Amino acid sequence: MIYINGIAQISPQQPDAAVRRETFLTEVRRCRTNMLQCVEPDYAAYFHVNALRRMGRVLKLGWAAAKNCLDDAGLVRPDVICVGTGRGCYKDTQKFMFSVDENNEQFVPPSPFIQSAHSSIAAQIAIQTGCKSYNMTYTHRAFSFESALLDAMMHLKEDQQKKVLLGGVDEISENMFKSFERIGHYKSPDTDSLGLLSSTTPGTIAGEGSVFFLVGSRPAEKSYAAIRAMDTFSETRSGEEVKSRIEIFLREAGLAITDLDLVVQGLNGDAAFDRIYHELMQSVFAGLPQAGYKHLCGEYHTSTAFALWLSALVLHHRAVPRVIRLNPLPVQRFENVLIYNHYRNENHSLILVSAPVSR
Amino acid sequence: MADASDAKGLSRAALLGLMAAREAVAQADFQSAGLRTGLLSGTTAEALRNVEIYLKDFLSNDSRNEFIESQDWGHSTRFIAETLGIRGYRTTINTACSSAANAIMNGARMIRHNLLDRVLAGGTDALGKTMLNGFHALMIVDPEACKPFDARRRGLNLGEGAAFLVLESEAALGEREPLCELTGYGNANDAYHLTALSPDGEGAAAAMQNVLQTAGLQPQDIDYINAHGTGTENNDLSEALGLRKVFGENIPLFSSTKPFTGHTLGSSGALEAVFAVLALQHGLAFPNLHFENAMPETLLEPVTVLQQGINIRHVLSNSLGFGGNNTSLIFSKTGA
User: Fold this and answer.
1) CB pair distance less than 8 Å for A182 and B68
2) Cα separations (Å) of B135 from A96, B153, B232?
3) CA-closest candidate to residue A288, choices A318, A314, A325
4) What percent of chain A has pLDDT over 70?
């Protein structure tokens, strides 16, 4: 069990979307371009002007959310930094690749290359905070954030005093969108993002976000939620297999299905792959209140960080925004939320989030 | 090799990785039944090579669609896991040049936390013009053979390759004899610059101090150090100062093996972990090719001639990466 003692998000939703219970996702942003882009802050508040000019967007997204999270927790310097990012600084890398060709491999400006390693997001946070200890970057599609989370959990077992900054960061790249649209990963006709979860056409919409958590082994005065357990599994062969993984996961966490108060699933409007979620809603999750989130943040490799933010705030506010509800069943208690996501049936993950103290 | 049909749309890093992973699994001769087996791999240039060749097609026509999904850093890990039937936890680390060392460290941590019984850990990377031009733009490529730790070093030589190690818990090992033990791992960050290491070697020293601590060893216990030693002005000075901080006047035998392999970036930590195992098994310390004159700042002199038949009990291996990401591992003779 680890506790979320600080939280911040930069996402396609407003920065204050969850600050107050009364306005918790009551106003939502939508798009009709199949790309849900972040509401970005004025970065001048986060960087020196000189540094800002050369800095890639994903590094700005990363540090701004990390800084807000540390501020929320009242902390200047974390002890450990664990970041997950599927695409990392790929956009800057492509910029560099084009520049290599344009310059015929002669006198290529190095700036985009300097920012091309995925690990520069976490390195930038280390530089800004002066955190010289453990620093890790995972990049494995929709396991990227989960791997960082698992690492954070191991750290808090190794040393209960530690405060771990944990994040999931990804940015949209237009080139990436174009190429993956070509092979059907994204919808071609323009789609209203708010209607995404009931879409019956192939493909999804692209999203992005930078979501950070400050986690510790003990609750703080302001603990949003606790993460009880996390598991990943790959390339399932059948819906039955997914069901049995979920049942084993809950059993090992000491819970029955009926202990769940809300299930947050990763539906993304791609009819071919949403089938798995629909099956679960009819079987193992039948009778439980259900929610979805990708109509608010789009599909991206670390979208489960957004789902964790959302679930933690649901528990914190003891309220479920109407916009995320998938069925009308009333939420009776606010004790346990299960997040289940899968990416193209390749990366499946489960995160069990609970109220920080028994209420 | 994979069947030709499986090989469709793959990256070169995935193919290199499979060759190495398959060798490691065959050598370990393990029985799968009932054990939780995972795969942790490090890579940094993986996604780029196919993009260099096909990006214009990706953006304008359907001729190279089979390669589109290889624009991804988890691509090779997934391919290796699926081909070898590794069904447990899998992930990929990209911390630039320390990626594979971090994959080995975190594979070991997962075993220690009883999350896995056995891990295939290592890394893979392939040469491409993005990395070559990138290091050129930073003016740290030596047009001739690199000479790590030499006073007149001018930069690195790029390389490519893959290496994997099978890590097992004692329970999973059973009656089989291990090649050696992974006794320590340490990670620290410079928090100094996105590419350069801190000029005083603080980060490298911290990683080495951490690894000694987790291994429960003293500096004098280390018999050979496989240095990161890329041959760049900045890396070698920072690493040498780090060595002086940790080992003082009593520097163990040390060398960089990068003149043999080139700098294989994300996989270098795994290649050098294999050299560490070979050093323990055969009592070797490898020569640091092309070294002539010691750096005036530290006067450190690496091994220049292959040392054979020496008693090597503990080998320390350094990996220092972009983003100040420093990782050290210690491999020890079983029971030493």
Assistant:
1) yes
2) 12, 15, 10
3) A325
4) 99
Whole-model pTM over 0.80: yes
Return the CATH number of B12-332, one of 3.40.640.10, 3.20.20.140, 3.30.390.30, 3.40.47.10. Answer: 3.40.47.10
**Residue of B49, B70, B194 to mutate when probing chain A, most A C-beta within 10 A:** B194
Question: What secondary structure letter does DSSP report for A45?
Answer: G
pLDDT in tens, B286-334: 999 999 999 999 999 999 999 999 999 999 999 999 888 999 999 999 9
Domain edges within chain B: 12-332
Which residue on chain B is closest to A141 by alpha carbon?
A: B74
Instruction: Work out the minimum CA distance from B45 to partner chain A, whole angstroms.
Output: 9
**Chains A and B: how many Cβ contacts under 8 Å?**
178
Cβ(A72)–Cβ(A214) below 8 Å: yes
Q: Decide if B125 contacts B160 (C-beta within 8 A).
A: yes
């964790």: which residue's tokens?
A: A308
Reply yes or no on whether B228 is catalytic: yes
Which residues of chain A does B193 touch, with a Cβ-Cβ cutoff of 8 Å?
A: 127
B229-262 core/surface letters (b: 16 or more CB in 10 A; e: else)? bbbbebbbbbbbbbbbbbbeeebbbbbbbbbebb
Flag if B93 and A139 touch (Cβ within 8 Å): yes
Domain A225-354 has CATH 3.40.50.300: no
A130 in contact with B, Cβ within 8 Å: yes
Summarize pLDDT for A307-322 with one digit per residue, the tens: 999 999 999 999 999 9
- A90 and B115 within 8 Å at the Cβ level: the answer is no
CATH superfamily to which A2-216 belongs: Thiolase/Chalcone synthase (3.40.47.10)
**Numbered ranges of CATH 3.40.47.10 in chain A:** 2-216, 225-354
8 Å CB contact of B322 and A157: no
By CA distance, what is B137's nearest residue in A? A110
Q: What is the DSSP letter of A269?
A: S
Instruction: Report CB contact under 8 Å: B136, A108.
Output: yes
Backbone angles phi, psi at A72, to 5 degrees: -60, -35
Q: Where are the beta strands (DSSP E) in chain A?
A: 2-10, 80-84, 135-138, 163-170, 209-216, 225-234, 262-265, 290-292, 336-343, 347-354
Contact A137, B94 (CB under 8 A): yes
Return the amino acid letter for B231.
G
